[in-house]
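Every protein is a chain of amino acids, and every chain bends into a shape of its own. The protein below has been through that process, and both of its lines are reproduced in full.
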Amino acid sequence: MRVAFYAPMKSPNHPVPSGDRLMARLLIRALELGGHQVDVASEFRTHVSTPEAAAALEPVIGAELERLRLRWKSGPRPELWFCYHPYYKSPDPLGPAISAEFAIPYVTAEASYAAKRDRTGWAASQKLVGEAIMRAAVNISFTERDQAGLAAAFPQARLAGLKPFIDTALFEKVSPAPDPRRLMTVAMMRAGDKMDSYAMLAKALRLIEDRPWTLAVIGDGPMRQEVQALFADVPGRIEWLGERTAVEIAELLGRGGLYVWPGCGEAYGLAYLEAQAAGLPVVAQQTAGVPAVVEAGVTGLLTPDGDVAAYAAAVAGLLDDRQRRDAMGQAARRFVLGQRSLATAAQLLNGILRDSAATGVT
């Protein structure tokens, strides 16, 4: 099919790296592997921080809709609209209108809906998200948590699941040579959940200073100085590696011994899959969407949400038990390379579209 792909939160062509951009690109590649012709339909970003800013976008939305209509009146029309990650701060105001006008199926991936946002001024944006979910031929969720949330809010919506995945090609080329004392983290340095995770990690590591660990941090961002300040009292143990290419990240992870990232508020975290693909066991929290990417007790350890002492104990336990750590690292690599590859996801996604979205227009 000719697929019109749209990511209202962040275009796959956006210059700033993030998990959202990476997943958008992975979905496009999975669609292409399935034989579909994918076109990024629009670069228009609806992501805003306030309801007032959302209302101000309405004139621009109308102009963008007209641009798309004119474009497809004279050229090949899409046969399916695929929207990635619509939610209250970045709804899709384009796809439902276009799919209705051109009589094509509408599909969402990682849509989310939170009724509590209606009480905080976001009712208009939430209404757009809800209408899109109900219109969709299928709504694809990446975690059981998200799918259950959609089912509770919209019992009549058509739902399907697709586990988070990565392109494993770079990691298949890596021959893990782990340094058993080298802890690894890959994360942007920005306010919010990321900063909360850095803060929790710093607190946990201070509790196990008696162990001979080092921490290598891959990532950068607007709060780099604040992040570094969190670890200022453990001098000589932290290696700040900055932003790195995908090839460099794969190679660096392959030389690590343990991946540590609490994962406060993580939707799921593709970095966990990348670390496991390189042969690293994970220590994270049993929170949000993290259980969708880490097999607790098999490929890593998941500790209670917010329990710094438990998190520190889990890291210390794997540092002290090389046999268990090595077994988990090997299981982690098998798990991702065998079950969470781009090729596997492409087959599953193609099946979802064939069975649900391509059977007709809703």
